[in-house]
Amino acid sequence: MIQRIEIKGFKSLADVKLRLGNFNLFIGTNASGKSNFFDALRVLQGIGYGFTVDEILNGKPKSASSEAWEPIRGGSTKADFVSLLGATTLLKAIGFGQDPIIRLSVDINPANGSEGVRDLRAIHYSVGVSARSGSVRDERLRVGATDIYDSGPIDNSPLLPSFRVRYYPGQRGRQPHNAYEKARPVLHQMLRDHSVTKSHKAVMERCIRGLSNTQRIDPIPAILREYSKAQLVRRMGEHGENFAALVNAILDQPKARSEYLSWLKQLTPLEFEDVKILRGALDEPLFALSEKGEDYPAPILSDGTLRFAAIAAAFFQPDMPDILTIEEIENGIHPTRLRLLVELLKSQSQMSNRQVMATTHSPVVLSWLKEEDYATTFFCTRDEESGASTIKPLTDVPDFTDVVRGKQPIGELFAEGWLEGTL
After folding, report:
1. Is 212 helix (H, G, I), strand (E, B) or coil?
2. Which one, out of 52, 149, 174, 353, has a CA that is 20 to 30 A from the CA of 248?
3. pTM of the shown model
4. pLDDT in the model for residue 86
């Protein structure tokens, strides 16, 4: 789980620092920075996959060893933050010898989802990259208070053919300077370095998992209505690909089946008895609900029912990700059922010790939050003059806590634009 994240110089995120929890909700108007924050998470995921800087930002075609990687919105040409304050600042940002650097820094709790891990110290990882040249400019890995490697003490000129870091193997004397390919972060490259100790590689592997084990959930009802190509899967696709195959796997586990069915029964007023898997001509699975002996297959179920069923299924995947990202969680779901959705995301992320990153534009969703949720509900706004986004927890919004405790509903404050007026 990412406990803390710092983003500098990426898109509209000039300087953002956040402490995160299990359930994190991002709110704000369009173009306020919410999607840019989620893009930053994807950059970290690409680093965890071992891609080059150029591949992370501009995409990577499918190969024999990896799936296709979609480019970050806007690619490398739109990755840097460019201030709108004056021509001088703008010219410095886009050229004239300047090479803007995007910096990302995270603190990762290694215990999350890592069975058998004994070292529970937080892992700190930071990296600076140049989108323009597609190269790494600085990088550091630390566990607890102990450095593993750091490029800070070394002069890494952009003109040099490689990127060097000072490695700390735990021995006395001069610490070795290791050279690596500059087009991709060091993190994955050091795993193949025979000079790196086994214990340090274990930290690197945990860091890589913390960055890469992320799943974006954006269920598309048209895909959820399809027959699955597989019989059983451990994780469904981003848009709900192989949804029925995942549910088929959930139904094979009595405890998961019972809990999953319980959530679905709360969603719909229909008195359905069970979740079923129907079969096509080639025995391919199809999601269905059963009521009074009659089956209701996915093609005739509502968009909201299918979308909720897919989001709920994501929390019972045999291969659960450490981080789930879901944008506009209210899409397709009736307002009277949004309370159930909020309860699902909160309770399941806490029970499984996973992390949810979600966005919403719905005042109804906010109305179901409790005071303990405000510290990880983040209000996003963008300065019209500089173009920089500010992201801060509701607990840091001036007078917010007092106003809400004075019985002014948070949903009304959001709908009326009160939050925008405080910053």
Report:
1. helix
2. 353
3. 0.91
4. 55
